[in-house]
Amino acid sequence: MKLDRHWFSRALGLLAQRRLGRPGAGAAQFSGGMFHCRAGSRAYKLFIPSCYSGQPLPLLVMLHGCQQDPDDFAAGTQMNAVAEDRGCLVLYPAQSHEANPARCWNWFSALEQARGQGEPAIIAAMTREIMARYPVRQSQVFIAGLSAGGAMAVIAGTLYPDLFAAVGVHSGLPFAAARDLPSALYAMRLGAAGARAAQTAGQPIIVFHGDQDRTVHPANGEHVLAQGLRSHPQGEYANPATLAGQVPDGHAFTLKAHWLEDGSPLGEHWVIHGAGHAWSGGSKEGSYTDPRGPDASREMMRFFSAARRAGQSAISSPARTGPVPG
User: Fold this and answer.
1) Which of 3.40.50.10710, 3.30.450.20, 3.40.50.1820, 3.40.50.620 would CATH assign to domain 33-314?
2) How far, in Å, CA of 325 to CA of 156, rounded?
3) What is the 8-class DSSP label of residue 180?
């Protein structure tokens, strides 16, 4: 008898539910695990909201920045609290010390910019594993990240448009911003102008960046959004609008939004005035956060809930080179 390659994972999940009760039977869960595939292995944390009782839910993949881990990132972004309100699973892959001593995702390596290999393949396969274990709405799988995690979110979204419906980037860089460490440092200091010719998969994308960021130049936020709009099959027809706002007792911000004729969002760029390299609206319980900014976590989740995956026939990935590791 021929079995689906995810059959064993599903069977284990059903067995756990029978023994332990359905997840979310009265309380949210935040637990860890270890994932292995042909491309490599990584630890992770998974948040399951208290509303879960076996029904399909959206899934958000969150990639931490350098010197962070899933617990720190979850505490700083407070994304679990947002996911509890919204009824969403949240997966936090963890970068290992062995892969990068500073726990940065290796977005700047040419080896990590092709489908079917490296860290993007691990993240994609881990995401599929969670989708095999839990009923996930396949059209509502999203990915977001901070700094190096934001840059890797762009890469994963570009290489796996069949998996990720929209992308969130905080203080990150565009696809193909660098091919090695020297070019990465240049892009971080001055902006990734060299990525202007690169194409992404064109999913809806939401970008946050502080205009006083001294770690990743704010121009990179502009490059990320421009790259996304240029790559979308209807990007040239997007309707733009600009909104200026102020968080009470906090930072002023400028929002540039782009949407399609049917009202679906295509891209948003939030420039946080006076903010540095930190998650906007985050909690001091975690690192690299700025509580005085607009709440990036809630705004990303709001954007994702309204985003629609572009038609598969219109999406292409220029860097597809192989099958998805399982």
Assistant:
1) 3.40.50.1820
2) 13
3) S
Instruction: Please give the Cα distance from 282 to 74 (Å, whole number).
Output: 10
Q: Confidence band (pLDDT; 50, 70, 90) for 17?
A: very low
Model confidence band, residue 196 (pLDDT cutoffs 50, 70, 90)? low
Smallest Cα–Cα separation from 202: which of 46, 313, 75, 323? Answer: 313
**CA separation for the pair 274, 251 (Å, rounded):** 7
What is the residue type of 212?
Q
Q: Which helix (H) or strand (E) holds 284?
A: none
Beta bridge partners of 207: 169, 269
Q: Which residue from 148, 178, 182, 169 is spatially nearest to 228, judged by alpha carbons?
A: 169
Is the CB of residue 37 less than 8 Å from the CB of residue 125? yes
Helix, coil or strand: residue 145: strand
* pLDDT at site 95: 98
